[in-house]
User: Fold Dolichol-phosphate mannosyltransferase from Microbacterium natoriense.
Amino acid sequence: MAQVTVIVPTYNERDNVAELVARAAAALAGRDAEILFVDDSTDDTALEVGRVAADAPLPVRVIHRDDNTGGLGGAVVAGLKAAASDICIVMDGDLQHPPELLPALLDRHDEGDADVVAASRYIGGGDTSGLGTAVRFGVSRAATWLTKAMFPIRLARSTDPMTGFFLVDRSRLDLATLKPQGFKILLEILARTDLRIAEVPMEFAERRHGTSKASMRQGATFVAHLARLRFGKMSLFALIGVIGAVVNLGIMWLLVEAGIPYVWAAIIGAEATIVGNFLLQERFVFADMRTDARGIGIRFLTSFAFNNAEAALRIPVMALMVETWHISSVLATGLSLIVAFFARFLFHSLVVYAP
Ligand code: GDD
Ligand code: MN
Assistant:
């Protein structure tokens, strides 16, 4: 068994492969190591890995995936499963993570008191110049702060839970507990397990070639990932419900202002919200529960039918509650919304996204 597997997730990093392999091989000289690329590229990165592997001084493998399941996080988990050794080091493929740091991670792990060793941009000797603009730096710091505030105990010893450069001892990790939808796989590991972490400082470099895949969409995915980790699916479902209610009122207000009769404004607002909520839930809440058994069309129709039935039933049920229990209509509205929330959540997890 190799002593260490270096896992490199890649998405269109062709021009960085040769330098990465050369520098990693030099840094790992004398150790029994392999490099494993997990590639979701649409360019010929995988071919380039094959070319470079042919004259590399250590084994270099590539897994090319066509479905991009789970994005970056999914790629890392696929790499952890396929690695030849239990000691795995995950690093980016764009040379923002200096391969020269590989021995420091291994040496720190050899001290024996940690299952995870992370390369941190925020401890002594670390450096964040590669983050680029002040805006990106600010966003990164704020996200780190928010994340640490949400997991005060599990992240107590981590200064940089979002780093993508870390060693993990796979034998200490139950891969089945990871839900690899997130961009931030280290955070997933630290938040869901009680692995012990140590850190070494790193200088975060500028990307060598190509462009970053960070985006607004990834930002949204990250916030959803945090909410799911911290409060579970139901909280995220509730958050989307609240956003939907506000949007619903906004649409109604706009339509009524534009002279559309109130009833039509209410119907259009409600239907638009039902569709919007479905799309958000599909993407952010139930992404890991989608199966091939039922396509998105069926899921949508089931969800749409349920929500319309529920909306249509709520008013008569409220009237019934007011009459039989002699409670105020405000209380009846509140109660019916709470019941509707749980009913909706249960219906979606047990029926729409049934395994
Ligand atoms: N296989 C695979 N699939 N690899 C991906 C995907 C994907 O969907 N998306 C991105 N990658 C690879 C990139 O090719 C690169 O090697 C690495 O993941 C990081 O992606 P970048 O596009 O360079 O993102 P970044 O520089 O903004 O993010 C990095 O910094 C963050 C900390 O600021 C990553 O290291 C993150 O993991 C890290 O948390
Ligand atoms: Mn990068």
About this structure: The radius of gyration is 24 Å.
